[in-house]
Design goal:
Layout: H1 5-32, H2 43-97, H3 104-125, E1 146-148, E2 155-157, E3 165-169, E4 172-175, H4 180-184, E5 194-198, E6 207-208, E7 212-213, E8 223-230, E9 237-244, E10 250-252, E11 256-257, E12 263-265, E13 269-274, E14 282-287, H5 295-307, H6 314-374, H7 378-403
Antiparallel strand pairs: 1-2, 3-4, 5-14, 6-13, 7-13, 8-9, 8-14, 9-10, 9-11, 12-13
């Protein structure tokens, strides 16, 4: 076989270049710490590493979202704790106001305390997070949740019904705030209590105790109105009960003789009345779900009732006592509702902790998968690098030896 000089040179050069290329690839791997420098190094592993990197990135994004959600829920939890304390203190003042030995001046002092409590509750309803966003205004986070009418002083909800949602995991979205109207303006959806109230036009001295609910009553869920009438001839007092069911159908009972201290049964809802009603006086008994549960309106009614003189006036004293009874029941239901929301916030924070734990495990798994695919085994790489260096030196030495061979070289 005849070998041309150019073939010998080209073959030697190709061997050196191939060894240099392999050596350069190993040097890049060692310097970068990565087994895959280019996709051509391992196409399958390169594709799998892209998926692993995306999973790791998404895991990090979900973790960031959970931090944001936890911070927002923590701010809400702090505000709700203060709200619970505020309503509890107001309920204590209602009980204190029911003391019959208090004078009008004493009750006005309590009215002042309740006014401060209402204003504090108003401020809490407009709580903000660290960035100035209002917690309880729904999607309208840039504006106050509650506003006060400058003329009447009435406090009303100004937010919307949107609930801010954050994606905290691949298959989990979580509300990071609650709507103000769901905290301050409603009864707990599971509450079955009834609320009684006296008509504002009553002129008699009849008072009531908070109604009781008996399980299985035929008229549970209906609204009742008790109307009193006094016979002009005999002076006998009777009452009728108008029952309105959930469909809006009303029925009125026949007149029943009234005796102070009677417990009136309305078909599963009972209420004890005492004192002497006037002709035309009426009382309403309704489910908490359909009643006006605005805590600010309740406190305004309390303040107005405590400010009005009642000492020595039987009708005014009865009106005050009825207002206190209604307010006490409403505030108790408000407190129950706020406590339920507070428990919901705590449950969501607990879920975030569980998701964080799961996310940390997932991050470790994704990191390991990515490491197995792309990280370099330095021991193997350095050994291979040393071997390639020896091979390059051998190739260069062999080429140098062949280069010196000539048909015309002669020994002297």
């Amino acid at each position: 076989m005849r070998l041309s000089t150019s073939m010998i040179y080209q073959s030697g050069l190709n061997g050196i270049l191939n060894t240099q290329s392999s050596l350069l690839s190993l040097q890049q791997q060692v310097s970068s710490g990565r087994r895959i420098v280019t996709a051509s190094d391992d196409p399958l592993a390169a594709g799998q590493s892209i998926n692993a990197s995306q999973n790791l990135s998404m895991t990090g994004n979900y973790a960031s979202n959970r931090n944001v959600a936890n911070t927002s829920l923590g701010n809400e939890g702090n505000a709700l704790s203060a709200i619970v304390n505020n309503i509890t203190a107001a309920m204590e003042k209602v009980v204190q106001a029911g003391n019959g030995t208090l004078s009008d001046t004493d009750r006005q002092t309590l009215a002042t305390v309740l006014t401060n409590s209402r204003d504090a509750l108003f401020a809490l309803a407009n709580s903000t997070d660290g960035s100035g966003q209002y917690l309880f205004s729904g999607y309208q986070s840039g504006s106050a949740a509650y506003v006060k009418d400058p003329t009447t002083g009435a406090i009303t909800y100004a937010g919307d019904t949107g609930q801010r949602i954050v994606q905290v995991d691949q298959a989990r979205q979580m509300a990071t705030s609650d709507i103000g109207s769901d905290i301050f303006n409603r009864s707990n959806p599971g509450n079955t209590a009834y609320i009684a109230s006296a008509s504002s036009t009553n002129t008699g001295a009849a008072t009531f105790l908070a109604p009781n609910v008996q399980t299985g009553g035929a008229n549970i869920g209906s609204t009742f109105k008790i109307d009193f009438a006094i016979d002009a001839t005999t002076g006998d007092t009777t009452y009728t009960i108008t029952t309105t069911d959930s469909s809006g159908t009303s029925t009125t009972s026949t007149p029943v003789a009234y005796t102070p201290g009677d417990t009136i049964d309305m078909g599963g809802v009972t209420m004890t009345l005492s004192g002497a009603p006037a002709d035309g006086d009426s009382f309403t008994v309704e489910p908490s779900q359909s009643a006006n549960m605005d805590v600010f309106a309740t406190m305004d009614q309390l303040i107005t009732a405590l400010t009005a003189p009642s000492q020595g006036d039987a009708a005014a004293s009865a009106s005050l006592r009825n207002t206190l009874t209604t307010a006490a029941r409403k505030l108790a239901i408000n407190l129950d509702n706020v406590s339920t929301v507070q428990a919901s916030v705590g449950a969501r924070q607990n879920e975030l902790d569980a998701l964080d734990s799961t996310g940390s495990q997932r991050k470790l798994t994704d990191t390991k998968v990515l490491s197995d695919l792309t990280d370099l085994d330095y021991y193997s790489a350095v050994s291979a690098l040393t071997l390639r260096q020896v091979a390059l030196q051998a190739s260069m030495a062999a080429f140098s030896s062949i280069q010196g061979v000539s048909l015309f070289s002669m020994n002297k």
